Amino acid sequence: MTDTPTRIHGRLSVAPMMDWTTPPARYFLRLLAPHVRLYTEMVPAVALWHGAEARFMPFHAAEHPVAVQLGGSDPEELAHGARVAERWGYDEVNLNVGCPSDRVQSGRFGACLMLEAERVAECVAAMQAATALPVTVKTRIGVDHHDTEAFLDAFIDTVAAAGCRSFIVHARKAWLQGLSPKENREVPPLDYGRVHGLKARRPGLEIAINGGIADSATLHEELRHVDGVMVGREAFANPYALARWEHELFGTEVLGRRAAVEAYLPFVEARCSEGVPMTQLVKVLMGLFNGCPGARAWRRALTEGSQRRDAGPAVIEAALAHVAPRDAA
Ligand SMILES: Cc1cc2nc3c(=O)[nH]c(=O)nc-3n(C[C@H](O)[C@H](O)[C@H](O)COP(=O)(O)O)c2cc1C
Predict the structure, then answer these.
(1) Residue 131: CA count within 13 A, CB half-sphere
(2) If you take atom 5 of ligand 1, which residue's CA is the nearest one?
(3) DSSP run (H or E) holding 136
(4) Mean of pLDDT values over 147-172
């Protein structure tokens, strides 16, 4: 193992989030942050196995670099999913070993797979044999009472031995029983030190950290310890933070908020005419002006306007009237 980690994830990414990291949201976030890696919502490998590609796989060329996240625990299904991902042109295939929902556990995938490292290794090996794309794993620091450093190292080592070079680690463990998925993102305490320790002990692996990162100071501090940061909820609570971080990390001249919305409008028009509901198209915009004058009126105009039966892109144009006309920030 060399000490130079593979670079797949990069410095910053937006986390996979069901109902949030939809194609429209990813398109808009890409306008704000050209170099940030984007992840899809989790796609069940079994759905692809049964041919549901058209429902789950389409994405816009502007989204690159974009990773598809698969959920599953059957090596053959996951290998098929990896092949499909490559055919559709994704940049990475990520395996979900972090989600603790009951639905996911009954299908034996997600966080409960941390207890089956050999099976995860088999899945990763099968996926890698099926595609030239990088295969990465998103996981947690532990599950239930399996939460020691040694447990995490053993899990990572087993999966790395199967060929995975890049891991995203949500810095809290999951309780498989008794907590809702939402509570499992809030109740188990964050332990960034556990992820830093992993990176220090396994310098040849690319390790990105995830969980609770919502401000520049924490982002930059974390990048002193690990290779990359994955941001989830903050990317939607306050999407413009992504533009700021894009500028800070990559020096990009980013669009202002209003310019980003205007650049999004042609996409909205196209999707709207294909029948995509405006409620889905405005979801990513809700928090855009948080902290700016008119933010509340902007949200209300989007919420109310997008629910009307005849709603179209004009809803967004009308909402813009509530926020400052000149917006360079
Ligand atoms: C609404 C929602 C949906 C999520 N869906 C997924 C998912 O499909 N796959 C996954 O690996 N994690 C999922 N997560 C977890 C996030 O990817 C991330 O690990 C978690 O929110 C912690 O990061 P944060 O504190 O930056 O939000 C989801 C989180 C939220 C809030």
Answers:
(1) 27
(2) 17
(3) strand 135-140
(4) 98
**Could you give the residue numbers annotated as active site?**
99
Angle at 129 between CA 127 and CA 133, to 5 degrees: 65
pLDDT in tens, 75-124: 999 999 999 999 999 999 999 999 887 666 666 788 899 999 999 999 99
Structure tokens belonging to residue 178: 């008794």
Same fold flag, 12-250 and 257-320: no
User: What confidence tier does 3 reach under pLDDT thresholds 50, 70, 90?
Assistant: low
Quote the ligand 1 centre to 317 CA distance (angstroms).
30
Q: For the packed helices 117-130 and 75-88, what is the interaxial angle rounded to 10 degrees?
A: 40
**Taking a C-beta distance cutoff of 8 angstroms, is the pair 245, 296 a contact?**
no
User: pTM score, two decimals?
Assistant: 0.96
The domain made up of 12-250 is a member of CATH 3.20.20.70: yes
Cα-to-centroid distance, 219 and ligand 1 (Å): 17
What spatial distance separates the first Cα and last Cα of the chain, rounded to whole Å? 44
From atom 11 of ligand 1, which residue's Cα is the shortest distance away?
A: 96
Architecture of domain 257-320: Up-down Bundle (1.20)
Q: Distance between CA 126 and CA 319 in Å, rounded?
A: 49
Q: Report the residue count for the chain.
A: 329
